[in-house]
Amino acid sequence: xxxxxxxxxxxxxxxxxxxxxxxxxxxxxxxxxxxxxxxxxxxxxxxxxxxxxxxxxxxxxxxxxxxxxxxxxxxxxxxxxxxxxxxxxxxxxxxxxxxxxxxxxxxxxxxxxxxxxxxxxxxxxxxxxxxxxxxxxxxxxxxxxxxxxxxxxxxxxxxxxxxxxxxxxxxxxxxxxxxxxxxxxxxxxxxxxxxxxxxxx
Length: 201
Prior knowledge:
mainly alpha; Reverse transcriptase domain-containing protein; two-stranded antiparallel ribbon
């Protein structure tokens, strides 16, 4: 039984629903059943097989989460599991940390990133590799080397290269800044016309 506060929150969330039941159902049906369960111990097989039953509830949860700009703590919890990098374990340094997060949260992130992508310009820089389908770090390295070697084939040419680690770049972003922009290409800034709630989330 939902209280008046719950109903009001749901009504507010439904006014600007970012995620539909159909989208949530489709995402749940696409979960890999072999995926290891996160700290909530909900296996991927359950989410996939019970997509029809869980879609309505999870849609309410994610839309309320987005409208309140709060991610439930249970979805942010991560279990760190040591996994050997090699088949033969000779010392502790062979182990590397693997983070197991909630599969439900991964589904939520997929749904949100789809919405974010709809706000990106239709044509991105051809050298944009991050957050693009069928693009990887290997593609970026191969393309960079190809461009560099092609340039150096010309007589009397040289080149300088700068490598920057952006792994924690989003840790310092101030989402409420009115001119908040994301540097997607490293060359030009593309403004994201997103709802402030998404940025806060």
